[in-house]
């Protein structure tokens, strides 16, 4: 409920323009008085003109489709009659009555039927070929003369099984191989019925070229880029201006809109918005449709819309000029007051506003001058008080840092000397000299550096020396990897922050029964303002209660009193003192999997 109130409050503030200047408010409000009425009038006019143009285009498209549909029906009716003549020919009747190949071969009927087909094919220029198929017996066609693909390949095409069993015709479009090229044709397919059994025994296919159909469709003009196409009952293109679409399935949204419907008109969107008008022919089983780009329909409306927009812009400019002239007398004194307020924000309390009027704005300017005088007095008092408090706080933190840092050095020195003593007892080798040299460098580094923070690069040099010393002690049981990218090497870190963490990993991670312990150092940038340093080992890890105790010490332990885990707490507190809350350590540990200490530090660009 509270969130809803906050959103409502914000929306009201935005609508009332409370965060905008007075000039902007006046320009916007005056603009609304002109723009909104013009937009409403223009929009209503645009809708009305669009509806009128759409209705006229629909009516025109409907008339065109009906005319083309009638011509198509009459045209293909002639082919139906021609096919009936072929089927009623005595030789064809005799051929369909035969039941086996031997009977056909002995009778010599094949050449006679082929001659019937030739005569019918050459009687009309628009017939590409005629094919007769008796199921599992014979295929007779005009392929030998026309030289196109054998008819038995038709059985593999998508439409073959859809031919009606009741003797009705199916009209489809497809490509045939004709004179070394693919030629589009319209095929009229009809089942053959046996005169003896009255059952389907094959089919007759008449292939018609597109010359006559192209004449019908080329008479149709649908705007500049509109076109007409034809789709069969299965949703395949029978005719399309682009022959690549012939035989393909129509777009899904187009098929769903027109199939199983007699006629209609609607708006569709494929790659562009178009007006679709369609009508279904029961005789052909086709749906004829026209598609006209919607942009072409609304060209007149767009011109009207542009005219209204031009008038709106001119009127708006005039209104703005009048509004600016009226507003300048009010807004200029307020802008002058705003200018002086910015100077006050920057700490300049010495200037005053010259009051030029006695109206409400003049009264406001006088009150502002009095407020500036009083504010300067209060700031002077606060400045001296805060200065003393800051000096005391800095002195206290300096003392705490000195105490915390001094507690590390004896602890580190003790562990290093203990390592040297252990090696001296265990081995009688010259490596002790090398380890002593590394130890001297560490001690020299600790005495030399007086700053509270150093670069990660310098800190890594110290850690490398320390790890080499410990490597002498533990040999193959200890290994380490340092993966610090270049961008992190110059970042700052409190002095001796990594060494106590590495020491802790060695102390708790190296175990005779656990195998080799590997310590890894990584730097990962998490955001634009901070990054993470990780010290991770694969040692035995901490028990949950021990890990909980360490987290408690990081928050509440008094490091000045000494005790266990002083090194980790020391590092955490120094990071907090130097960089502020939100920065410091966090420890993750899991039994038999190891421990990871993450240090969150500020990222300096």
What does this molecule look like?
The chain is α+β, with helices and mostly antiparallel strands and 605 residues long. Among the domains are: 89-212, 2-Layer Sandwich (Beta-Lactamase); 392-602, Heat Shock Protein 90 (2-Layer Sandwich), CATH 3.30.565. Helices cover 54% and strands 20% of the residues. It has 17 helices and 17 strands. It has helices at residues 2-15, 22-87, 90-97, 101-107, 109-122, 143-146, 211-218, 252-258, 294-297, 299-345, 360-426, 431-448, 456-474, 486-489, 498-509, 544-556, 566-579, and strands at residues 127-134, 138-141, 169-178, 181-193, 200-208, 227-231, 237-239, 263-269, 273-281, 286-293, 453-455, 478-483, 492-494, 517-525, 530-537, 584-590, 594-602. The chain has a five-stranded antiparallel beta sheet. β9 (273-281) and β10 (286-293) form a beta hairpin. The longest helix is centred in the middle third of the chain and has 67 residues, at 360-426. The protein is flat, with a radius of gyration of 48 Å. The two termini are 42 Å apart. Residues 144-151 have low confidence and may be disordered.
